[in-house]
Design brief:
CATH architecture of the largest domain: 3-Layer(aba) Sandwich
Distance between the termini: 15 Å
Oligomer: single chain
Order of helices and strands: HHEHHHEEEHHHHEHHEHHEEHHHH
Structural class: alpha/beta
Number of helices: 17
Number of strands: 8
Strand content: 5-15%
Radius of gyration: 22 Å
């Protein structure tokens, strides 16, 4: 069966400039996936995507095979495609940050893009396959605020306070700003300090985009035109009921696959679209598997199985107090480290008996925490086995 992905979309629409075919939800996902690319040692001044890819190749040519393995994320191929595409290649990267702190269990990375029409896109990186990323995601189930969320606000406010200078002559001759010469004249002065902001992100990045938009300074909030969350988790009730979140709701839209776990845990009240995926189970979280057509995502319905699984996890965690949640998360990631489980798919390659024996060896655990680990890891292991079985068929 053939289907179209964002790769196909770039091939189909990549020769159409934004003034011919305005940016849409699929472009927002492409920007979100671009945030996964490691731009370390490349971005020290504003640079176009075309130029950035050239520097990216030069940097990679000097890396060892082992170093390359750590940075060759799935978005690598997408970056190459859009860097050669007229639709995207002249978009500028104006800022990039990649901050990993094991001590504070923090993984934060974001990218700021200047579109040719003068808008700024801030794309937050989601969880990669590292243990740190998974750990911070689970802490979201325990804490009202995690370190990456605080960093997401600071990054947004820093970008918003940055003045991007363009001359009046440049803007009057920029057809991307507007078809009207008078509107280009107006936007020149408006955009010197108040460029529109578009926040996007996939997985944890989607959560960071929503959090930053809700808790940044009011003058920055007024400039946010849209927040697109691609299968990112929601928030604790305290945030959901806050005026900050409620005020931003009309500008937030979430996209989740048919089988969604990450995108439906915790609280959500924003509008959402369910997207068809060619993967099975929790692997549908991979946005490269999502179906697209010429203009939009191909719609689907949320699966009962994914809702049932998410509800089990939520109900399970609701039984625990603050200290018990932290003890549980610490014990689980100590166990993952012991078993060399660094990704979800790693669970499918070991036996459940192996997991049970490893839990028994954690002698400092009390009975309640040990039983909790058995219950949750059994659920996760069954999900991983389903995916392995489905892939083999």
């Amino acid at each position: 069966m053939t289907y179209n992905t964002i790769h196909h979309y770039v091939q189909l629409r990549g020769d159409l400039l934004a003034k011919q075919f305005p940016y849409n939800e699929i472009d927002a996902l492409i920007f979100s996936e671009l945030a996964y690319v490691y731009f370390d040692e490349i971005i020290d001044e504003p640079i176009t995507l075309k130029e950035a890819y050239q520097k990216y190749q030069q940097r990679n040519a000097n890396l060892s095979e082992k170093q390359l393995q750590t940075i060759m994320v799935p978005s690598h191929a997408l970056f190459e495609e859009i860097a050669k595409s007229p639709r995207y290649q002249n978009i500028q990267i104006i800022a990039y940050v990649n901050d990993i702190n094991k001590e504070f269990i923090k993984q934060f990375s974001a990218l700021a893009l200047l579109l040719e029409d003068g808008r700024i896109v801030i794309a937050y990186r989601g969880t990669d396959d590292s243990l740190i990323g998974w750990h911070e995601d689970f802490l979201m189930l325990c804490e009202k605020v995690v370190p990456a969320q605080e960093s997401s606000v600071h990054f947004l406010e820093n970008i918003a306070s940055t003045t991007i200078h363009t001359t009046l002559w440049e803007d009057l001759n920029n057809p991307f700003l507007d078809t009207s010469l008078w509107r280009r004249f107006q936007k020149h002065f408006q955009y010197q300090k108040n460029r529109p902001l578009w926040l996007v992100g996939h997985s944890k990045g989607g959560n960071l985009a929503m959090y930053a938009g809700c808790f940044c300074q009011k003058d920055v909030q007024q400039r946010i035109i849209q927040i697109d969350n691609f299968d990112g988790p929601g928030f604790q009730d305290e945030i959901i009921h806050s005026s900050n979140y409620q005020k931003m709701l009309p500008r937030i839209h979430s996209y989740i696959p048919h089988y969604s776990f990450f995108g439906i845990v915790l609280g959500h009240e924003e509008d959402y679209t369910v997207v068809k995926s060619q993967e099975i189970g929790m692997m549908q979280h991979n946005a490269f598997s999502w179906h697209v057509n010429a203009n939009h995502f191909e719609k689907d319905e949320l699966s009962y199985e994914s809702v049932e699984f998410a509800v089990k996890v939520i109900l399970f965690l609701e039984k625990l107090n603050y200290e018990e949640k932290h003890q549980f998360v610490k014990a689980m990631f100590d166990l993952f480290d012991k078993l060399s489980i660094y990704t979800f798919s790693d669970l499918s390659h070991i036996s459940y008996k192996h997991i049970i024996n490893a839990i028994k060896e954690l002698t400092l655990l009390d009975t309640k925490t040990r039983n909790m680990l058995l219950e949750v890891l059994h659920m996760l292991w069954l999900e991983a086995r389903k995916i392995k079985k489905g892939t083999a068929q």
